[in-house]
Amino acid sequence: MPQLGQTCASAFPHSPQNFLPASFSEPQDEHVTRSATCSLYSAVAGLSIGAATLRDVPAELIEASGELSATRAWWLRVPAVLLSPRSVFFALREEDDEDVAARAEPLLLIVWLAGMASVLATPTASGLLDDRDYDSMLVAVWTFVAGGLYGVVGYFVAGFGVYFGVRLLGSLGSFRRARQTVGFALVPLAASLLLVLPLRLAIYGGDTFRDGGADDGSGERALLAAQLAFVAWSLALIVLGVRVTHGWTWPRAFVAVAAAAALLAAMLGVFLMV
Questions:
Q1: 3-class SS of residue 167
Q2: For the segment 185-205, what is each residue's pLDDT rounded down to a tens digit?
Q3: Count of CB atoms situated within 10 Å of the CB of 82
Q4: Residue ranges of domains in the chain
């Protein structure tokens, strides 16, 4: 695909213009992908990984299961964040309106689940069943509603923080790309809700939501450590996402995220003082 200022695009693999994103639309011989996203696409069509070349995958997918829609592609990228995050964050560079719109539902699910995981880790959640007005059903409703609100607000606030950080380091990227980078980086935190919470409920039952119950002790500390590991994973993915979407070095991406964290800490401090 010709670039700005070019009359034609060379098919030669090492032509410098072919290192620009749009030029990758012309696949090269023996150019085989090994990303998790590629593996997922191949599984959908029943293809082997060896057949998953840039030249062969699109044609064989159309024949095997019809053209892969942008919406389906982004749903497939959600679990791919855990396996091959670089390919997912690189895809966020795409500015096509259809592709951008296709990210909305996967992002909503990720943000909602991450928000639920976050509110369940608060002191408020640990004492819900101490209130006689609460039962198991009301706890579930509270988790869903409060988690959704917490997740959506956190998504935009954290996205603004990252936007501030990358702009400070010279980025010309949009606020949308910054917050979507944060959104897909939250996949590990969202996954923790589906892994840690069932385990905690299986071990402690209703004491999970009671102060001073059976969930006090080394077992609870181990579960808390697991939860914090998922949080650290998501933070690391934010740094990786900034690096990949902007093509920056590790130090520059880390400084941008550190600036974002400093801004968010300052905002929180002001909020607590008011």
A1: helix
A2: 999 999 999 999 999 889 888
A3: 14
A4: 16-87, 103-273
